[in-house]
Amino acid sequence: MHPSLIWGCLWWCIIVGLFHISTLSFTSGLYISGDAKSYNWSHDFGLFISNTKTYEGIPTLSFLSENLVSCEDLEGVGSFNTTCLLNSDLHLDSDLYIFGTGNLEILPHVSIVCPIEGCMLTFNMSGNVKIGQHANIIAGSVIVSASDLTMDYSSSINTTSLGGLPPSQTSGTPVGYDGSGGGHGGRGASCLKSNKSFWGGDVYAWSSLSEPWSYGSKGGGTSAENPYGGNGGGRVKILVKDSLYVNGSITAEGGEGGSTVGGGSGGSIFVHAVKLKGYGTISAAGGAGWGGGGGGRISLDCYSIQEDVKVTVHGLYQFTSVSGS
């Protein structure tokens, strides 16, 4: 065969091969719930919804950690890489991780809830995050990383009574069945007359005072059939490059035990910001109970704290005269 014909055939094969490869790359699907589906790679980073079902009128979402989620997948409008507006309640049954280079706004009266002890919701945004009036983020652990975080009036980040397991080899949960309070940043209270010290659960997590990240402990119960009181508080971590505006509440309080069992101890809240502003509340107080739960731990790593944000981390009492520390 003439050399020019050989080169012509070779170039033709290369062109056809490149076209075939390009076609495959644009039609390859992402495997979701057993079905191969095409995926728009302009979607935002996070987790992809594997299935949707109804839970008392609110969508319940299950997530696959190896996949991605977009703003639209969470029934929002826009994109996590520009601006995403979340305008529908979400009831989650597992951890959620959201990542994007843009802004996120949770509109007023919208709730994002994962009511499972230790469930973690992470919002990792390069832009600003805004939580509208009466909007709520509720889970065992909540992490928000953003340029600015604004919490409007009556909004909340709430991990109260949703703590997971405290660190191993701790004695925050009281021993015995005298209804004592759980310990963490402070000791829980005991109301048993034979306990001359009036202390319940012990203090722990000394090694992480500057960046606390431990769950609170359960309060003590009254019998083998009822071994625990209120749950421990959860964890909140806020990392913002500039300003945190708190006109709502950030809470990691211990759960209430009631009139016969101990209150849970408060959890952990860590805030890193240049400026902390607002008139809201940051609290890791212990829970009320027969013996009050001890307070948790709060660390505010801020260059300036302006206006009048109320910070509480005390132990609590209600049903007896003895409180946690």
Would you spell out the secondary-structure blueprint of this structure?
Blueprint: H1 3-27, E1 30-32, E2 35-37, E3 48-55, E4 58-64, E5 77-78, E6 83-86, E7 90-92, E8 96-100, E9 103-106, E10 111-113, E11 120-125, E12 129-131, E13 136-138, E14 141-146, E15 149-151, E16 156-158, E17 235-240, E18 243-246, E19 249-251, E20 268-277, E21 281-283, E22 297-305, E23 310-312
Parallel strand pairs: 4-7, 6-9, 7-10, 8-11, 9-12, 10-13, 11-14, 12-15, 13-16, 14-17, 15-18, 16-19, 17-20, 18-20, 19-21, 20-22, 21-23
Antiparallel strand pairs: 1-2, 3-4, 5-6
Helix content: under 10%
What is the arithmetic mean of pLDDT?
Answer: 78
Structural class: mainly beta
N/C terminus separation: 94 Å
Q: Please state roughly what percent of the residues sit in beta strands, choosing from under 5%, 5-15%, 15-25%, 25-35%, 35-45% or over 45%.
A: 25-35%
Please write the string of helix (H) and strand (E) elements: HEEEEEEEEEEEEEEEEEEEEEEE
Low-confidence stretches: 10-67
Q: Write down the Rg.
A: 25 Å
Count of DSSP strands: 23
* Tally of DSSP helical segments: 1
The 3D shape can be described as globular
* Sheet with the most strands, sense and barrel status: 12 strands, mixed
